[in-house]
Amino acid sequence: MTETATLNIWRGDDRARGRIETYDVPFEPGQSVLDGLRWVRVHRDPALAIRYSCINANACKECMLELDGETVYACTARLEARPMTVAPLSNKKLVRDLVTEIAPPAERFAPKDE
Amino acid sequence: MSAAANTEPLRVQTDVLVIGAGGAGIYAAIEAARAGCDVMLLDRSLIGRGGATVMAQMTVAAALGDEAPDHWTHHLDDTLAAGRGLCDPALSQLLCEEGPACIREMDEWGVGWARKDGKITSAFAPGHDRPRCVYVDFLNTGPAVSKTLRTRVHKQKSVTRSGDLLVVDLLKSDGEVTGAVAWHVGSGAPVIISAKATIVATGGLTRLYRRNSASSNMGGDGYALCLRAGATLIDMEFVQFFPIGHLAPRLIGMDPIMWDPFRYKLGGRLLNGAREEFTHRYGAPDDGRYVITRDMATYAILQEVAAGRGSPHGGAYLSFEHVPEANLREAFGPVIDRLAENGIDLTSTPVEVAPIAHYHMGGVATDPAMRTEIPGLLVAGEAVGGANGANRLSGNAITEALVFGRQAGRTAAARAQGMSRTATARPSPDTLALFGDGPAGTPLNTAGMLERLQALMADEVGPLRTRDGLARALAGLDGLQAELGSRPAGTGAAFDMARLDWYDLRNMLAVARAVALAALNREESRGAHQREDFPGMLPEWTLNQTVRLNDAGLALGQTPVPTAEARP
Predict the structure, then answer these.
(1) Is A93 in CB contact (< 8 Å) with chain B?
(2) Residue B50 is nearest to which of A29, A62, A102, comparing CB atoms?
(3) Which residues 379-438 in chain B show a CB within 8 A of chain A?
(4) So which residues of B are the catalytic ones?
(5) Cβ atoms of B451 and B211 closer than 8 Å
(6) Integer CA distances (angstroms), A110 to B10, B149, B184, B368, B393, in order
(7) Furthest-apart CA pair in chain A: how many Å?
(8) How close A45 comes to chain B (CA, Å)?
(9) Which residues contact B116 (CB under 8 A, 6 or more apart)?
(10) Is A1 helix (H, G, I), strand (E, B) or coil?
(11) pTM to 2 decimals?
(12) Which positions in chain B touch A42 (Cβ < 8 Å)?
């Protein structure tokens, strides 16, 4: 049985000029919010920026975002048949859409003079 | 004009460049730094998070002999037998002989291998002649290995760590690799890295398949980078499918490979849709003891599904219904609660499992010092081909990551220290064009193309192959290549997903073609390569196939399997 979640996704590369885009996402109970975001990329807008590596295992810890105002891992938060608001972490530097700068400062690329 | 095309590339230089920060890459960086080199450790994702190592919930094979007698030569015998005659024995020997030293060094660094009575304890895994596989409880081997290496590399002051750097191409000068050019995903800037030695430690290619157990970064980048730099790939037809990847019910927050340690500890019964044991029909009785090798189990499950005897979602049942709950709790503690959160009670219901792309035996041809034939270019970990032949033994992947990483770091450091200056890496105009604006017109659905590629590979280049299916795969790859074009999609701005996908598709299509071509040409069945139209292993196919890139495209070749004596 397929149900529909409504994902209201924050988009943009400037906190002051963001917009919310809304997508209806089919899903089967048990699927994750990350499954829904990946569905949006394949079927609606491949430009949607999200950061993840391990998809399902909650091992890489890269897919942190805010779901209805709470910080979650998108891979373990479940899709539900209701409107869900997805936004980038508010306490990290925004890169684009749902991607924020979450690497420890010592592990960010910082060119030194040759 | 895009931001990227307006930007002069940033330039950095180092002694040793390590591409990929999983187990192999981090160990290489530590070793090169200990030898006195400056090291730049890159990852396309975050350091120590995005590779395959962090996801390994299972075990690590090494002949420690702590609990019971063992010797690396026994481990080598098992590795060569599992490889079905195609292993490069010198690489296999390196893995088995030096595995224990790396395991003990990890122990000194506090990884926390499970112990009994003070001794590191070993589990039995299929294909091994005795218990030989160490682990970290509970289902925590990969995260513990990753965290330990990350902590250790932090202490090496001469290692610079940079995440979000996607290497687009290796750079060459006078026939030698002199570094790489990368796209800084976080800002969109092109970055040129000059290095005296470059180690490719980017892992495998499981992302080519729809159902896979590794991270989304395992798209075969390193194989494609090395191909384009002129190196040789070997054994590309041998993709390992893990037979009992989780299939149903939907389970989140867990690695689909998690049933492997369950079977090590508790046995578990593999049953078909009618709840009958079946692997004996394919000459490999399992009897709930988990002794059947991966290639055989994959074959048996898929044949049972093809015969209409699969489980409802198209796999097999794995049942622990006969195991008392107290035993489940003792073996897996909090994991039992995580399963309950997903609605799974192992005492009353079986789960469904099916083969899932897991590991690549093939890879870049290298000598036991981890040097490719291109001076300045080394490889480590799963990117290396040859150590595991046609089928990898359980537990050898992390061992290989550690041992080959350490060796590559050592060799790279020796090269760097023998060079007085770092040649400045210079990209060609063609390479720089890969950072320019994409073509005008309707943007590609790059995410959709990736999904189509995965479906094509799963359907036609999976564990069971035919000539017709492989021909369809090659035709499909031609179509995707034509769609992709030669100019990168998107603008190259920060986290431009179209640009990221385009670079990935460029690599994945090249690597997928290498796998399909080698699979089509090998008209026999051996290990992980099963041809339904050519069942049975043929002695004349006891050879390694090679793939190289020349002006006309990918070219297949053949080379005799090296003998132990042939290599110094």
Answers:
(1) no
(2) A62
(3) none
(4) 294
(5) no
(6) 10, 22, 10, 34, 41
(7) 59
(8) 8
(9) B67
(10) coil
(11) 0.96
(12) 445, 447-448, 450-451
For CA atoms B260, B48, B92, B563, give the dihedral sign.
positive
Instruction: Give Cβ neighbours of residue B160 (< 8 Å, ≥ 6 apart).
Output: B14, B38, B39, B40, B41
Probe site for chain A from B46, B358, B451 (most A CB atoms < 10 A)? B46
Q: Are strands B377-379 and B190-200 parallel, antiparallel or unpaired?
A: parallel
Q: For B123, which DSSP code?
A: B
Contacts of B228 by beta carbon, 8 Å cutoff, 6+ apart: B169, B170, B510, B549
Do the bridges between strand B10-19 and strand B190-200 make them parallel or antiparallel, or are there none, so unpaired? Answer: parallel
Q: Which two tokens stand for residue B468?
A: 């017709």
CB pairs under 8 A between A and B: 141
Q: Does A15 touch chain B (CB under 8 A)?
A: no
Tokens of A44: 């609606």
Q: Which candidate from B142, B164, B447 shows the least CB-CB separation from A59?
A: B142
The residue type of B175 is G
Q: Token digits for B517?
A: 């071509």
Contact between B270 and B291 (Cβ < 8 Å): no
Tens-digit pLDDT profile for chain B (568 aa)? 344 444 689 999 999 999 999 999 999 999 999 999 999 999 999 998 878 888 877 789 999 999 999 999 999 999 999 999 999 999 999 999 999 999 999 999 999 999 999 999 999 988 999 999 999 998 899 999 999 999 999 999 999 999 999 999 999 999 999 999 999 999 999 999 999 999 999 999 999 999 887 778 899 999 999 999 999 999 999 999 999 999 999 888 888 888 888 887 888 899 999 999 999 999 888 877 777 888 889 999 999 999 999 999 999 999 999 999 999 999 888 889 889 988 899 999 999 999 999 999 999 999 999 999 999 999 999 999 999 999 999 999 999 999 999 999 999 999 999 999 989 999 999 999 999 988 888 899 999 999 999 999 999 999 999 999 999 999 999 999 999 999 999 999 999 999 999 999 999 999 999 999 999 999 999 999 999 999 999 999 999 999 999 999 999 999 999 987 644 3
